[in-house]
Amino acid sequence: MVKVYSIHNCPWCDKVKKYLKSKNVEFAEHNIEDNSADADACYKLTGDTAVPVITADDKEYVLGFDKAKLDVLLGL
Amino acid sequence: MATDKKHLHKDIVIIGAGMAGLTAALYAGRMNLDVLVLENGIVGGQIANATGIENYPGFAKISGKELIGALQEQAERFGAAIDEFDTIESVTLKAAPKIVETEEHVYEADVVIIASGMNRRKLPLPEEAKFAGKGVHYCELCDGHMYQDKAIAVMGGGNAAVDAANFLTKYAKKLYLIHRSEFRADEVSQKRLRENPKAEILLQTEITALRGDKRMERVEILDKKTGAKREIAIDGLFVNIGVVPNTELFKKELALADGGRIVAGEDCRTDIPGVFAAGDVREKEIRQLTTAAADGTTAALLAEQYLVKLKEGHQEW
Prior knowledge:
The complex is a heterodimer. By secondary structure, chain A is of the alpha+beta class. Chain A has helices spanning 11-22, 36-46, 67-74, and strands at residues 2-6, 27-31, 53-55, 61-63.
């Protein structure tokens, strides 16, 4: 399952989620404002203090809305 | 030009879905024109990141997300189509019809309204690339939360910077506002920041270097009055030092002013018939949400007049 690390008020997170929906990609949203374990996992994955972060395998990830990279990551 | 792309004709293609572009789309939609809005970034543009807008008439305070969301819905209700995923690759404005080529389509349009707005200026220091996302940020809404109880700095002295600083005080243990000259922000926002006990304002101060190992940990600052340099511990730096016009796609065909904005009068007409420039991307003295909405209105109404004459065989401009 694709994971999207996000926060509540984040236009780029909204854009990523909208894009995944437009491509019929199922994903689970992990809101790092609501869940500190998700926040830790997100930071551990990227070392970055930024969202959105998208991953399919908890190893490779895309930070931000980058359509070309997302298409490669998710095989779209 | 790729042959497998779908070719479509539109009365108007609007480039950019900020306040100017969406207002033009609303007016064009209400005039029953076939209008498409293309957005390479986020719908709303710069305003999507605004946490509290207090100078848009009719609203005591509204977030950028709410204001733009309502405007987008309004434009779509009157028939405007908005595509934020089909990236624009090239634009040919002097052709008739005009050509806007995206990843998936070749759009032919009788009118193009350019409302592509501005992008935030990047921090002009060599360490920027190393620390981008690792201490250096450009989206307070997206990334501010990561700095709960940390030391945050905002670089810049305009309205956007001071509003960002006010917003970030809700996370910060300590908030520095660092600006190389004097404030340009309005008095209300300045006063709010000055009265916040977490805030320390360093004017006439330049950030000269960023330090850290894997993440940014400190910034070196220069007091321009005394010439003294020192380092302060900062976990997150939010850069808000102005904007650059988003005109890369048009610079070969359109006249640009010194700062890179498109030359067009208050009627938004550029020097190419059928091409309008609206909002912050147009060279003008005052760039506010209200003037962007006004430009969008003007461009759409004059575009409709142009289209009527064009269909009658007169290309008057």
